[in-house]
Amino acid sequence: MKKGKSSEIEAIYFPDSTTECERPLFMSCVQAGFPSPAEDYIEGKLDLNKYLVKHPAATFFVRVSGDSMLNAGIHPGDILIVDRSLDPVNRKVVIAVVNGELTVKRIKKQESRLFLVPENKKYAPMEITSEMNCEIWGVVTNVIHPL
Fold it and tell me: The whole model's pTM is what?
């Protein structure tokens, strides 16, 4: 099991709320194939900024590097949407700065102890102690990655 805490954040981005990119939202569910683009099926327009960013002033994006969160569905190259206004409660995936290094991990509170837990058995959980400099930057709300 690897112990080191390699940085897992490749880049940080902020949302551009000045742009809109509304795309058609179809009422019919897709089981296999693509629905007819006929106007009868269009429910309205969907702007992904409005859907994915609940608190624009408190939201930022990060690009992931590293594989410690694979079992949480977070892969290298993915973009994470992070909301600083949400409380980093137990079991949430967060962006943390530990001793000056950015990382993405799941918070685990166990009695009076706090851990940052990877979602890959190759890596060990990291207990946050009083000797460490740790700050939670925000809670991950969504993951964007190609199929």
Answer: 0.78
* Domains in the chain with CATH codes: 9-15+57-144 (2.10.109.10), 22-52 (no CATH)
pLDDT band at 51 (very low <50, low <70, confident <90, very high): confident
How many helices and strands (H and E) does the chain possess?
A: 1, 10
* Cβ atoms 49, 64 nearer than 8 A: no
d(CA 8, CA 26): 36
> Of 66, 62, 68, which is closest to residue 121 (Cα–Cα)?
68
**Highest-confidence segment of 27-31, 38-42, 68-72:** 68-72
Q: Report d(CA 10, CA 58) in Å as an integer.
A: 20
Mind telling me the catalytic residues? 68, 105
Read off the pLDDT of residues 130-144 as tens digits, 9 standing for 90 and up. 999 999 999 999 999
